[in-house]
Each structure stands twice: as C-alpha cells, then as structure tokens.
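Progress narrative, work stream C.
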Amino acid sequence: MKFSLFILFLMITLSAQADQSANHLARYIGNLNMYDVTFTLLDSKCSTSYALTKKQVEEIDKLTLEKTGVSYKKYISIVGDPELTLEMAEEAIQLLLENNCNARLLDQWHYRVSKGVDKNLSELRNAEPTNMQIK
C-alpha cells in the first residue's frame, strides 16, 4: 500500500513538473512571438527596422524544436491565437502611431522593449524541455 502511494505521489510530482516546464516554455515562446508580431507590425506602419533578425528567429525555432519537439511556427499555430496576438500588438503600438511614428519615441520604446526579447530568449535557452506532447 505504501509503495503504491509513493508511486502515485511520484507520478503526480513528475506530472506537475512537466506541466510547469510546459507553462514556462509557453510563456517564453508566446512572449517572443508577441515581440515578433509587434516589431513586424511596427515596421510596416512606421518604416522602421525593428523586426527580429533572421538569426534570432532561427535560434527561437531551434530552441523551440529542442524544448517542445515542434518548430516555432508549428508551436505558435497550435498554442497561439494569431488574431489576439495581432490585436495586442496593435494596442501596444497605438501611442507610437498616434504620435506619427516620432523617431525619438520609437527609439526609446524599442530600447526598452528589446530588453524583453533578450530576457525571454535567455530564459528559453535555459528552460527545461517539456515531456508533454504537442501535436
């Protein structure tokens, strides 16, 4: 009886850890997708060049594949909500657009926001892979 309770406890603990790992990965990958969409949208509206670099996107894709078993684009298509992400990106840049894409404001905004990209990319690099199946 004690052994079966121990096994049950162990399974619940491992499941909780897997869920926690999946939640962390979802947050990091989701945040990076939000930055990706926001920067791309801002580039199209204000003629800036803030979009994630090809190298950054390739690293995100590689890390996502390593940590989740699926590519970045596939992960976002399964877990993400493109319409909501775009809506949130539009809200995030609304003041910049209302200020006619003021160069000084854009640079200040990008400087602050790009720190989030670096932080989430670093967190993704250090995150534990998930055992959960993502299909």
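Work stream C, second folded protein:
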Amino acid sequence: MELTNDEDGKATPRTLLGRRLRRMRNDSEQSLRALAGQVGYPHSYLGRVELGDQLPSEALAVASYPGSR
C-alpha cells in the first residue's frame, strides 16, 4: 500500500491520520505550538504529520486512537 498523498485527492492512511490529528487539535482549541509543547514533539513535525507529509511515530499514531491498544 502506498503511503503518500495522491495527486488526485484520494485519501491515504497518512492523510486520514493527519486530518484526524488536526480535527482533535482544533476541537480542543489548541495551536500547533501549544500542542507541541504538551506532547514533546516539534511543532514543525506535528504540522507535517497533519498535512500528510510525514509519517507519525508509532506513539503518536497510537495516541491518536485512544483505546487502540
């Protein structure tokens, strides 16, 4: 399975996770920098994950789906 953004706009696992992370952050009314300070990841890394440009760490992916482990 390809894990990159599709040019034609189809969602990939990477982009779906990024959208979920952004939705969760927006729902909690946090800025990217505020969240980064709380979770210990650089804001630039979190931003790339939200955009689907960066694969998340396993810990970040698991934290995005509470109850998944």
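The two ends are 23 Å apart (CA to CA). No further action is required on this item.
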